Amino acid sequence: MIKLLIVLITLLSLSSVNAELRLLSFPGETIKLMLDVDQEVQLNFEKPLSSIGIPTDIKNNIKTQLIDSRIWIKATKAFKPTRVLVKSLKGEISVFSLSASPNQQKAQEYPIKYNIVSERRQAYKSSSSGSSSSGSDSSNNKKNTNTATKAGENYIALTRFVAQSFYAPKRLIKKIDVVRVPINTKQLITLFACSKNLACNGNVSASPLASWKSSHYYISAVLLKNTTRQQIVLDPRDLLGEWKSATFHFNRLGRTGSPTDTTVVYLISLSPFEQSL
């Protein structure tokens, strides 16, 4: 069973990642989210909400419903990036930059779900997973916690480092405690299951680029390329393997031969890449 935590990361000198299943936002930074017209999305927050502020410019282009800590959004017409503020019961503000474009594929019957999680919360979960109150396990869990809380051990830091290793100038890359590990880069791999989005795995070729190891995780980068004449929206639910986190640099692939037919997915696992497939 695939266990995924899809993260939305604002990378230095990079465009924001638009992930399909779950988002993780940095506190205080704008979350960019592109909607497909007529495709409903569900935003799940950690805390109960009080309001969502929709500017008058797009009120006729969007439908929203807020219940407790969840928001359902459906764009009925296309619109340009617009700032939307979401306020929690405690007065905390989340800033979204919403935009909508015509859907190139048939809308799904069910909402695409996004979990909005703070970086601090995610790092805490990574460091405290598997904790126990028993005396014999306490010592082991303390060691695991100390290991997991080292600099660069959370999913965000690992994914940011690998993405910047490919796309950012070396002087801007923040060094973390990881080492490069061998990975077979000379063969294509089967990374997707067949689905109505992909039709079949052969529609998207996948080839490993590189892999690193921290004291607790492996983080690998895989190049994805659309081999069809149709636009493809990548869905993490179609991924094969055991991943703790999966982040598409861009989740939309243009038709083959276009400048947007290629992207990279960053995969975090507990085992080496080949064993996690």
Automatic annotation (TrEMBL):
Protein name per Swiss-Prot or TrEMBL: Uncharacterized protein
Organism for this UniProt entry: Bathymodiolus azoricus thioautotrophic gill symbiont
Source species taxonomy: Bacteria, Pseudomonadati, Pseudomonadota, Gammaproteobacteria, sulfur-oxidizing symbionts
